[in-house]
Write a structure and sequence with these properties.
Layout (H helix, E strand, L loop, with lengths): L2 H11 L12 H13 L1 E5 L5 E10 L2 E6 L9 E4 L2 E5 L2 E6 L2 E8 L8 H30 L12
Antiparallel strand pairs: 1-2, 1-7, 2-3, 3-4, 5-6, 6-7
Length: 155
């Protein structure tokens, strides 16, 4: 075997094949949009799972949501992550090895009363046009530089 091939294969074996962080791809964003438009639940670290009324992908590694039927400006939440993974009907958001949030269809989220969430989603579709200005104000307040810590899972 020629020495040049031996050298090339040795060099190749030294290349690190460590996995790169997975950045949310456009198809992951599309999945998120489809989940939310069909009725989705978001479970974030340290918070009770909620029916998502509005969802925004603010930056490559930041999502924000407003719970359906939220009635306070500070009901809007945000989450910073460094990668995503998917499974049927759900997206997981990770920071390091810790899952910081999971967005899933009502059917894919294991909740005690999925029928109540489905009914809530149908009612929310009637209410959301009347709440659009309030929801936008909540997101604006969340993104203000003087908003402080925003919330426990924002980075």
């Amino acid at each position: 075997m020629p020495a040049s091939l031996l050298h090339a294969s040795s060099a190749r074996s030294r290349i690190s094949l460590a996995p790169r962080p997975v950045v949310a791809q456009p198809d992951t964003r599309l999945l998120a949009i489809n989940l939310v438009h069909s009725g989705a639940i978001l479970a974030a670290s340290g918070q009770e799972a909620c029916l998502v009324g509005e969802f925004r992908w603010n930056a490559p590694h930041r999502i924000a949501w407003f719970p359906a039927f939220g009635d306070r400006l500070d009901d809007a939440r945000a989450c910073v992550f460094d990668r995503t993974s998917t499974e049927p009907g759900a997206i997981m958001f990770w920071r390091g090895r810790t899952r910081v949030a999971r967005l899933a269809s009502i059917d894919a989220m294991e909740v005690d009363d999925p029928e109540d969430f489905q009914i809530g989603w149908q009612l929310w579709l009637e209410v959301v046009p009347l709440r659009r200005g309030f929801i936008n104000a909540a997101f604006d307040a969340l993104l203000r530089p003087d908003a402080g810590g925003e919330n426990p899972i924002a980075g």
